[in-house]
């Protein structure tokens, strides 16, 4: 078991999400930065489907009750095991009663804690990803327990280390395709979208990031239609909303851009007041 | 009517198929039939299909390497004939208690519209509503067929917590909140029926193309049915709908 001693700001269990339930209105969910979650799993030789813990801005503490190996990838929140600093993107051997904590934020806003064999919280509609009214909990809280399998075999430590491209955390360029309603925008509006430096408003969550800057908008709303993770909607106020992993399956605002998978993962490592520009690429 | 259908790429792994931008039963029928044909091909590279008023979005597992090829294949599927018969559609009877205890906006909308509360209830519960699709929240049905006499604008300030089962009117739409949620619709009643049960293989009993009929019940009946729903002894009334 993993015991939550301190829950942090927003700590959830995530995997690849619930694909295939759009017809009953169920969002996909899943790790916000799936690149980092996949990396942590692959370092442990886990399946990419295995569930990890998504930690937002650190400030949490866990106790392990069984021997295992873990790996932490994504944002760097100065993790320690029993107060000893541990590296990111490496297998770490864990003994019963070890205490893992996160401290100072060096970069990124989300990190992923993977465990050998994955965390084994309840599966609902083929996924362990937390989502209100689908899983019992939508957040991990102090005192919660999450189970995992005991692994007693020793680990082969390798000296090779994985070099993480720091661009993943630092980039100020968010790549996107044109969205279904992009062509309804005038040349002027299109230029405005690509010439503006946008900042993330404090209204940002796993559902979506609202941006602060205003884009001229004379488009009418559309008949409610599909939206996807990474869809950028232009709202009547002229503000853009970038939909993230927990977004609804349908929406009625014009869909002007569609982020690439890479861009979604990069944006997932940014938070309030971070600045970036959209860059259009063709499919 | 000539059905003009367009195909657009939607990101790197989805294709958006669009019909004319209107809410129309014939279009819905065409969309649902196309969806069934796509589903029956059992193509494993298609992981989800998101259906709405005038669109189908086909989501692929991987990047679409050749958009034109995929569109060509979809067009072939559209032209094909469904091998098995079309899925049955049902009419579901949904009990709703319109008592002002639950219908917390009834008095206000009655005053604004000069309609008696009983008339509003009568108009709301006598219509047959078609399910266009499910979205917004898990188990939230988009219904067509609200009587124009009871179109009521959304509240200027959404409530932070509308209870599960609340029945509301928002502009030209009516619907049921499948779970506690924020919401700006005028609340006119409450149903004890569960519209989303995650423990079921099929979490929502209804599907696009089915029909909903609301039935007015008393407070006593509401509490009785609520108990049956909790004890899982409640059986929804459904009848086969022959279009």
From TrEMBL, chain A:
Highest taxon listed in the record's lineage: Bacteria
Gene3D superfamilies with a match to the protein in the record: Cyclophilin-like (2.40.100.10)
Alphabetic keyword roster: ATP-binding, Hydrolase, Nucleotide-binding
SMART domains, A to Z: AHS2
InterPro entries: CT_A_B, Cyclophilin-like_dom_sf, PxpC
Membrane-spanning segments: none
Signal peptide bounds: none
Annotated ranges, domain Carboxyltransferase: 23-283
Molecular function GO labels: ATP binding; hydrolase activity
Protein name: Allophanate hydrolase
Naturally occurring in which organism (per UniProt): Polaribacter reichenbachii
Automatic annotation (TrEMBL), chain B:
Superkingdom, natural source: Bacteria
Recorded GO MF terms: ATP binding; hydrolase activity
Pfam families linked to this entry: CT_C_D
InterPro entries assigned to the protein according to its UniProt record, in alphabetical order: CT_C_D, Cyclophilin-like_dom_sf, PxpB
Keywords of the record: ATP-binding, Hydrolase, Nucleotide-binding
Stretches assigned to the Carboxyltransferase domain: 5-206
Taxonomic source organism: Polaribacter reichenbachii
Gene3D superfamilies: 3.30.1360.40, Cyclophilin-like
Identification of the protein by name: Allophanate hydrolase
